[in-house]
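Sample entry as discussed:
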Amino acid sequence: MTPPSQPRTAPDAGRERDEIVAYYTERYREDLRLDRRPQARLERARTLQLLGELLPPPGASVLDVGGGTGAYARELVAAGYRVRVVDLVPAHVEQVRGGDPPIEAEVGDARALRFGDGEYDAALLLGPLYHLGERADRVAALREAVRVTRPGGRVAAAVISRFAGPLDLAATDRFDARVLAEARTLLTDGRNDPASGFTHAYFHRPEEILGECADAGLTGIALHGLEGPLWTAAEAAAGGPAADAVYAAALELARLYSTEPSLVAASGHLLATGLAP
């Protein structure tokens, strides 16, 4: 068996990990996130559509790394997949285990999975990469997902777009001089400042996640923009008379322009997919 990659041991790595766990345990309800806003509903709808197109037929085994409170895992189990969730946050794992239906779940680090080579038919990384600030750590997590996936199996990894935060704040009337300054900084530095209200995170350009996937050994890599270019309009229209129509249009355009290179970075989240060699 190939030994798992080892997590980074920099002095601040443990502190950042603890702060991320505390954020999701004490300050943020991840179990409510995908139902709250037009952006999140678009993210959920398109992620499920793409998984339906890309995963092997029901009955296959799927490792959901960074699976949060199990939103996608439950959908996959309902569709007939065999799913195990790994998450950094103990409270998330308890919610997955105690939900309906209960799903096998454990606390773990995406960079050092305990599973054997090729043990799963597919692997998902729908959260870990945007909480790993170092490129080496992100590639390590991707390599682990590749390692535990059978040859020819699918790996799917989500990241947050470099431009998502400022676009979101502008669309929802929260744009000010501080946001503009942050947007300028993000053009050259993808690291999120935890003082902004979100925890430690890294925001990607499309070419970055494509390069990380290639370095991890994935083949046949494709990149999708999940919410599409109209998600900010859906946010701006929320609560108004055109909300439903704009959301419906945003979903259709998200599907149409899913892999359009000229528009992919306009999405709030990007989904990279590839095959384990």
User: Anything to note?
Assistant: The beta strands are 61-65, 82-87, 104-107, 120-125, 149-161, 203-204, 219-225, 269-275. Confidence is low (pLDDT under 50) at residues 1-9.
